[in-house]
Write a structure and sequence with these properties.
The complex is a heterodimer of chains A (319) and B (259).
Chain A: E1 6-17, E2 23-35, E3 40-44, H1 51-58, E4 66-71, E5 74-75, E6 85-88, H2 100-109, H3 115-128, H4 144-156, E7 162-166, H5 174-189, E8 193-198, H6 201-207, E9 210-215, E10 218-223, H7 225-228, E11 235-241, E12 257-259, E13 262-267, H8 272-281, E14 285-292, H9 296-309
Parallel strand pairs in A: 3-8, 3-9, 6-7, 7-8
Antiparallel strand pairs in A: 1-2, 1-4, 4-5, 9-10, 11-13, 11-14, 12-13
Helix pairs in contact in A: 2-3, 3-4
Chain B: H1 3-18, H2 24-42, H3 47-71, H4 73-80, H5 83-88, H6 94-128, H7 136-160, H8 165-180, H9 182-191, H10 195-207, H11 217-221, H12 228-254
Classes of the chains: A alpha/beta (319), B mainly alpha (259).
């Protein structure tokens, strides 16, 4: 296997807090992970988990208190590393006196492309993010969703091999989220490495080869979404409808929820057949029976609940 | 200037133009027109003196206000609006960003000063119907104002690398005013006969930018010629001082966490 796309070793960040800046608050605690070339890697965690701090450290916007990181074999201190990466910050904001076309042209200039190539690239990437018609509009007139798309375009305008996206779906409507998902899948198909942070778990489950879960600045686990959570079935979910003149079986009266004309009930796997028998007896119409597996979201919520029950402030006053 | 600072500089200039910074020229033009008409009415013989004095003072004040108030926002605005995050994710070093920002504002100030100088020349021609050989001193005075603005911009940029815009404005103004009186500070220090005070005054004299030497407005208004040696001396002094301040700003900014 070649050089990993991203190698993070013991990355730690302490921020000085308080009026005299003597107290230290640890935002990221000894993060170590590797992302291989061509992977779509999800970086999950609730707000304040350390996701943005990690991305800022990788971009050299803030400097580590300890640890190192390399992207495609180059240290994050090496400015040449930036030729191979693209970055979309969280809730991006751009020079609002520029048009989208001017902004992309401005960023493309840093890569030394000649004028003709810059023009061609800018047009191509505006089209790619669905902004072909808005290229000559000043960014001050852009909606949040449009700014997010410009943000993605500036991150990929120079065809980087590794793309870092901080909450790329946040603030987008369903259509926008779908488009961003398509762009990420497209980048992955081209063999690019996509490292993105999110707290929208369904997106991570849908897009990622692997995910890392971060909580309180500490890494909780890394793996394929299916590996992270147990694939064991913990129950069955039934949807059914009652025929006119029949009553809900008394055994289900406490657990079934009515949704419009339908009922939904969760039962342990061993009770599936007795419940189905009761429903058959009252001629209920079974709409669906599906196994229940924990989702990444369940895993995530469990971690947060565990952390709240047994909080270990990550290094308060650690230094 | 290498390619990357130039790209940042051109964008900074474009920002200033689109933010209607050059609208100050309208006030300048109105002031010069008003002054020319008024001078023609009330003063005989000293109209040139009044116009040159007023014009150069206005060029200096307008430029100073722009250099300080735009200068202190050059870095902080980019951090506050987070536009710097995307910029620094490109192959741009922090010092290149700073030099580009400095260059962009200096370009804006130069264009602004050139346009105001043209306005002053027009007013001068209106009141006296001719140009004199001694008017070359006016151009030298304008050049010195530009050097002074370069120094002030570098100072504003330096302070904005580690303090808020409000504090940076105060620091820059403080240094500017002290810089005008740096010679007096040294002289007063020498009068104290206290060796510590004398040494402190001497250090301040050398550390503070010496703005006194850049002010040749009165000489220009009286048509006095400005020695070539002063032109060289001021140019070298400003270039060296700006370079040192920008190196210090880069050193501070390169280690700063952009939270």
């Amino acid at each position: 296997m070649g050089t990993p796309a991203i190698e993070i070793e013991g990355l730690t960040k302490d921020y000085a807090v308080g009026f005299w800046r003597k107290r230290m608050r640890r935002s990221l605690d000894n993060l170590t992970l590797q992302v291989e070339e061509g992977e779509a890697f999800g970086f999950l965690g609730p707000n304040g988990a350390g996701k943005t701090t990690t991305l800022k450290l990788l971009m050299s916007l803030v400097f580590p208190s300890a640890g190192t990181a390399r992207v495609r074999g180059r240290s994050i201190d090496d400015v040449r590393m930036h030729r191979e990466i693209g970055y979309l910050p969280e809730q991006p904001y751009f020079y609002d006196y520029l048009t989208a076309r001017e902004l992309l042209d401005y960023y493309a200039r840093f890569f030394g492309y000649p004028l003709a190539e810059r023009r061609q690239r800018v047009t191509r990437f505006l089209e790619r993010v669905g902004l072909a018609d808005a290229g000559d509009v000043q960014l001050r007139k852009f909606s949040k969703g449009m700014l997010q798309r410009v943000g993605i375009a500036q991150a990929i305008v120079h065809d980087p091999q590794v793309i870092f996206l901080d909450e790329p779906m946040s603030g987008l409507d369903p259509v926008g989220r779908r488009e961003v998902r398509d762009i990420i899948l497209d980048l992955k198909r081209q063999g690019r490495t996509v490292f993105f942070s999110t707290h929208i778990l369904s997106d991570a489950e849908m897009l990622c080869d692997r995910v890392a879960v971060l909580l309180g600045g500490k890494l909780q686990g890394v793996g394929a979404p299916g590996e992270i959570v147990s694939m064991e079935v913990y129950g069955m979910e039934l949807f059914f409808e009652m025929r006119p003149g029949f009553l809900l079986p008394t055994a289900l009266a406490g657990s079934a929820t009515k949704i419009g004309e339908r009922y939904r009930v969760e039962v342990p796997e061993v009770q599936l057949y007795p419940v189905l028998e009761q429903l058959r007896n009252c001629q209920a119409r079974i709409l669906s029976v599906a196994p229940l597996r924990p989702t990444l979201e369940d895993y995530f919520l469990k971690l947060v609940a565990r952390d709240k029950a047994d909080p270990h402030p990550a290094g308060e006053g650690a230094r | 200037m290498s390619a990357i600072p130039a790209v940042v500089a051109i964008n900074t200039f474009r920002e200033a133009v689109r933010d209607r910074v050059l609208y100050n020229l309208i006030f300048f033009a109105l002031m010069m027109i008003g002054a020319s008409i008024l001078v023609g009415e009330i003063s005989i013989g000293i109209s040139r003196l009044v116009i040159i004095n007023l014009g150069l003072s206005a060029i200096s004040i307008f430029g100073l206000v722009m250099a300080i108030f735009i200068g202190v926002g050059l870095v902080s605005k980019e951090i506050e609006k987070r536009t710097l995050y995307t910029l620094l994710s490109k192959p741009v070093r922090r010092w290149e960003f700073l030099v580009g920002k400095f260059g962009g504002l200096l370009l804006t100030l130069t264009v602004n000063t050139i346009l105001m100088t043209l306005g002053l020349a027009a007013a001068l021609y209106y009141v006296s119907r001719n140009f004199l050989r001694a008017d070359a001193s006016v151009l030298v005075a304008v050049y010195f104002i530009l050097l002074e603005l370069a120094l002030v911009t570098a100072l504003a940029l330096f302070f904005s690398c580690f303090s808020s815009p409000m504090l940076s404005t105060l620091f820059t103004l403080g240094v500017y005013v002290s810089g005008i009186f740096s010679k007096d500070i040294r002289d007063i220090g020498m009068l104290t006969r206290n060796p510590a005070m004398q040494a402190a005054a001497q250090v301040l004299y050398y550390v503070l930018p010496n703005f006194h030497n850049f002010n040749t407005i009165t000489a220009a208004a009286h048509g006095e010629s400005i020695p070539l040696s002063l032109i060289w001396q001021n140019t070298a002094y400003a270039a060296l001082y700006v370079m040192l301040v920008l190196i210090a700003a880069s050193a501070v900014f390169s280690g700063r966490d952009l939270k």
